[in-house]
Amino acid sequence: MQRFQTPVLCAGSALLATLISFGSGSTEASQEDPNKVLAQLRAEILELEVQVLTCQEFMIQQAAAGKELTEALARSEAEGFTAGINPRSREVLLEGLRAQAKAMQSMESKSKSKDKSKDSDRRQGRRQRR
Length: 130
Fold this sequence. Notes:
Number of helices: 3
Helix content: over 70%
Strand content: under 5%
Mean pLDDT: 77
Radius of gyration: 30 Å
Largest sheet: none
Distance between the termini: 69 Å
């Protein structure tokens, strides 16, 4: 009987502590001015939007750099970079750099495909409503 009472007592205490903590939190939240909470949330949203725009600008710059890198690699290879001693190592280097350039440009291709899919979704949605 003693073994059964200990877990039940612990579980009951944990439940009581949880109820007390939730009860005190809800009274504090209800006492706050909703306008202040709304203003704080708006400020946080604006801050997050700025961060998203910054990340998007960085991704656009990376895509542009990826295109430039691809062009530079093509020019380098055309001018004979892979000729000479151990040309295979240079070919491997170019393959790796091309993969990096492709990865840098991947966000640009994803955004284009998303734009196309959004347009097609809109058209399909209109058709379904008719």
